[in-house]
Every structure is written in structure tokens, then in C-alpha cells.
């Protein structure tokens, strides 16, 4: 989660930075300064907001610098069987 560590690791092979808004299983929250570092390098930030409490109720990744937000959903929590999956990808308006 150290933004400076991310800056040191970015090179010409880096295509994107992928973060979780709330990590699984510890529910840790990243330092969103990582988004600024990525943007200075011209790299898009993808944030998985699956655990972001109701598709953005608590954490709104685009407001924190995300370029793309993904949400994944499974029904394991409802029926326990994992028979249905779904998801969504949201463009923050920075891609044609």
C-alpha cells in the first residue's frame, strides 16, 4: 500500500494498476495516492469495488482517482450454492 513503492515498480511494461477498494479477506483499504502516481506515469487505475459496500455506497472509487471500476457478484451469500455469477465494468469517462 506504499505509494512510493508503486512508483518504484512502474516501468515500460506496466499497463495498469489493479487495486481492491476493500481488500479480501482483511478489508484493508489502499492509499488512493497510488492513483495520482499512476496518472503521472500515464497508467490507468482499475479498482475492484466488489467489497465496496453496495456498489459504491461507502467507497466511490472514481472520486478517488479510479479510471475503471469493476464489481463482481455471486449468489454464494444468498443461496450458498455459487450457481450464479455476474459483474459490471464502469468506465470513469476517460476512455472512448
From TrEMBL:
Keyword Protein biosynthesis in annotation: no
Any single Pfam family the record assigns to this protein: Cys_Met_Meta_PP
UniProt keyword terms in alphabetical order: Pyridoxal phosphate, Transferase
Gene3D superfamilies: Type I PLP-dependent aspartate aminotransferase-like (Major domain) (3.40.640.10)
UniProt GO molecular function: cysteine synthase activity; O-acetylhomoserine aminocarboxypropyltransferase activity; pyridoxal phosphate binding
One example of a Gene Ontology biological process annotation: cysteine biosynthetic process from serine
Family under the similarity heading: Belongs to the trans-sulfuration enzymes family.
Name this protein carries in UniProt: PLP-dependent transferase
